[in-house]
Amino acid sequence: MHALRKSRPSRRIVLASAATVSGVVMLLALKPHTAPEVAAAVAPAPSSSSSSGSSTGGGGTTATGTRTVTGESVQTRWGPVQVRVTVRNGKITDVTAVTYPQENPRDQQINAYAVPQLRSEALAAQSADIDTVSGATYTSDGYRQSLQSALDSAGL
Hints:
Blueprint: H1 9-28, E1 66-70, E2 74-76, E3 79-88, E4 91-99, H2 105-125, H3 137-154
Antiparallel strand pairs: 1-3, 2-3, 3-4
Helix pairs in contact: 2-3
């Protein structure tokens, strides 16, 4: 008679249990996929899109020169978010996240992807009217509010 036939049902139970435990251990040993390091790879938006002809309104700032303004710190569920904007001749040339949640590895993973995306969106939109990054809703909202605060201070 075969070893796994009805004469030895306990052996079948032991083998099935061992296979299940082995499968669970292998699943738990898998490492999560990490986002690629894109923070250094994001370049400023190309200046070929010459939409600077739109009027920036009669704000209290001059239309020429370079000005760097830091927005207010916005408290989010996961920590503060603060943005610094550089404006040259009425156009946003750089956006830097000064403060953003990075207290734990999950925050670092999310924001390593989200912050460059938000920067790219802001440079392309030339305003604080930017899309929320999926998976980083709170950071996106804080980034948007701080960016608007900085743009208001810069007179845009």
